Amino acid sequence: MIQAAIPVSTQALRRRAILSCAVGNFFELFDFVLYGFFAVPISHAFFPAGNDSLALISTFITFGVGFLFRPLGAVVLGRYGDRHGRRAALVVTIGLMAAATGFTGLVPTYTQIGLLAPMLLLICRCGQGFSTGGEWGGAAAFLVEYSLPGKRGLTGSWQQFSTQLGALGASSSAYFLAHNLAPDVFDSWGWRLPFVFGFVLGPIGYYLRTKVAETPAFERNAERRAISHAPLTEALSTHGVKIAQAFGLSIIGIVANYVMIVYMPTYAIKTLHMSADRALLCSVLTNLTLMTLTPFMGALSDRIGRRPMIAASGVLYLVMAYPLYLMLGAGTFEMLLIVQLCVAFMQSLYTGTIPVILAEMFPTRVRYTALSVSYGFSVAIFGGFAPLAATWLIGATGSPLSPAYLVMAAGAASALSIWSMRECKNVPLE
User: Fold this and answer.
1) Theoretical Cys-Cys bridge with 159: which of 21, 65, 355, 394, CB 3.0 to 4.6 Å?
2) CA 16 vs CA 8, 11, 222: distances in Å
3) What CATH number does residue 79 fall under?
4) Are 385 and 70 in contact (CB under 8 A)?
5) Residue 348 lies in a domain
6) Contact 72/372 with Cβ under 8 angstroms?
7) Residue 107 resides in a domain
8) pLDDT digits (tens, 9 = 90+) for 235-268
């Protein structure tokens, strides 16, 4: 059968919508993950001197508490997006993120204002978490609803591509500053520069998002007066099992990302005694590899299905996490890079598939809320405190291999969730 040509105006509209969403998502995630890559200097700036381990743990607690606000953002902004449109909600998220990130870079240190410093830092981190809770699900729904049939995996993967591009930008800025600034300069004020820069980027993303049309799927629902007035209640009552499945299958990518990618520079510096610039360079290369592989995995999911991709990621992490941490014991940059490249491949099986699989599980009426809530609660429980749990495990057990057990447990949980659900490749969105 010969498929009718798509009008040029429609093609241009779709490209512009996808680009604006991806650029805005890049800004959001660049701002959000900066904290993880600058954990060491942040611990020195905002917590009492004298006990570096306690200061680092306090920093990761603040990092994790911000994640507790992601479900709140998912509920509030998800409801807003299902009732008033995806674009409207995404415009709100990017404004909130820019403000919270900019203030993080301006908060005075503990030596300057005492306990008020970590309190203000916590408020900023909670604002970032609230914004990201609405951003992730909104961007996934927006892209999938704009995609062509048969290409949802590829189109949806641009959400994670832009996410990884944001992480790459964050890790690159951390490496650049650590490599080019004197250690005392980097530790005192150099780390603040990307946070201020993230605030400057916000208005660009805000402008782009205000200039695109609402998704066709949401507009059709609006025309039919099929908008849900209580999307969270409806989603829980009619799609509760799918929400539980979506929660479970999200676990592995979340834990692996925060334990084996975001936390890894801290692990390399504190446990492997590697220099900051070498550890951060490895993170740059890892994020670059993951970003490159993600669209290819999204396209592959359009051919072989969503379940095999996520299942493969879960099983590989279950089997490979412990051997990879054993390899890290060599303590060399080369071995760290090999391990991180293996992680990038396993993670790409997840990042290329997770936006589309979650979006296809739910109908348009409650899609924004359902996928935001399922992913938001999963990342709040298993992501935000993963670096803290890894740090605590190493201290409690004395074993540098102990973070591997977190990843192995997450792999088993996600594999079971995938086993319990049906394939949803190219199911009707309505």
Assistant:
1) 355
2) 12, 9, 22
3) 1.20.1250.20
4) no
5) yes
6) no
7) yes
8) 999 999 999 999 999 999 999 988 888 888 888 8
